[in-house]
Amino acid sequence: MDYHAYSLMLKAMAEPNRLKIIDLLSCGTLCACDILEHFEFSQPTLSHHMKVLQNAGIVSAKKEGKWQHYTLEPTFITGFQEMTTALLKADDQCLCHEAKSCDCSSTTL
Amino acid sequence: MDYHAYSLMLKAMAEPNRLKIIDLLSCGTLCACDILEHFEFSQPTLSHHMKVLQNAGIVSAKKEGKWQHYTLEPTFITGFQEMTTALLKADDQCLCHEAKSCDCSSTTL
DNA sequence: TCAACATATAGATATGTATCTATGTACAAC
DNA sequence: GTTGTACATAGATACATATCTATATGTTGA
């Protein structure tokens, strides 16, 4: 389980405004000005958020003339859901395969 | 789309140590001392992380004598994956159903 | 070339948070 | 009751980050 990449995605997603940006992009490509319309914050703040999303591998950018077009990375869409599934299902790493040192497991639950 | 609850979960999950705690709990219930064994940080720090996970609805706690037993919330496991799916698939909210004001959409992609 | 527009960068500030030490609380065993 | 154990709380500190204003960069059109 690669905690680092997954944690980077989660951290980028955890900001409510960025979550909304992802939701907006889930329908397709948008330029910065279209995204900005949906928020109260300033243009540099959007620029900051888009950079965070790119660094996390969530969004890719493609410049067309003056405009910056943003798209959700297909590898993110599939990868994130796969890692989520891997996280939440019991696997080899879990403690039940290891020796217990704490007494609490000897008590009757 | 309830950004708030989902964002609370994401924020709680975004910390690498908490991510590891969730992975450990994915196999079943564990007490605090068993979890603490897997980390370098102090006991109060674990206590802090467990409270964050509980406030996000990710983990529930049940006290048995001296010991605090932590379990992944079943509602979190299903709910988180549902909200993730809802976020990443195109839905009614997306911009393509609204009027564009930005000129970028008139250019040939 | 110049002006207008779209976006990025720099630097400052305020707020959030992960961590620690010290201490408190609750329970168990003697 | 006293002592030891498991965990929580309080308060402090260091670091991250979301936001702003001001400015720079790059592109288009006149």
TrEMBL record, chains A, B:
<feature type="domain" description="HTH arsR-type">
    <location>
        <begin position="1"/>
        <end position="92"/>
    </location>
</feature>
<dbReference type="InterPro" id="IPR011991">
    <property type="entry name" value="ArsR-like_HTH"/>
</dbReference>
<dbReference type="InterPro" id="IPR036390">
    <property type="entry name" value="WH_DNA-bd_sf"/>
</dbReference>
<keyword id="KW-0805">Transcription regulation</keyword>
<protein>
    <submittedName>
        <fullName>ArsR/SmtB family transcription factor</fullName>
    </submittedName>
</protein>
<keyword id="KW-0238">DNA-binding</keyword>
<dbReference type="InterPro" id="IPR001845">
    <property type="entry name" value="HTH_ArsR_DNA-bd_dom"/>
</dbReference>
<dbReference type="InterPro" id="IPR051081">
    <property type="entry name" value="HTH_MetalResp_TranReg"/>
</dbReference>
<keyword id="KW-0804">Transcription</keyword>
<dbReference type="Pfam" id="PF01022">
    <property type="entry name" value="HTH_5"/>
</dbReference>
<dbReference type="InterPro" id="IPR018334">
    <property type="entry name" value="ArsR_HTH"/>
</dbReference>
<dbReference type="InterPro" id="IPR036388">
    <property type="entry name" value="WH-like_DNA-bd_sf"/>
</dbReference>
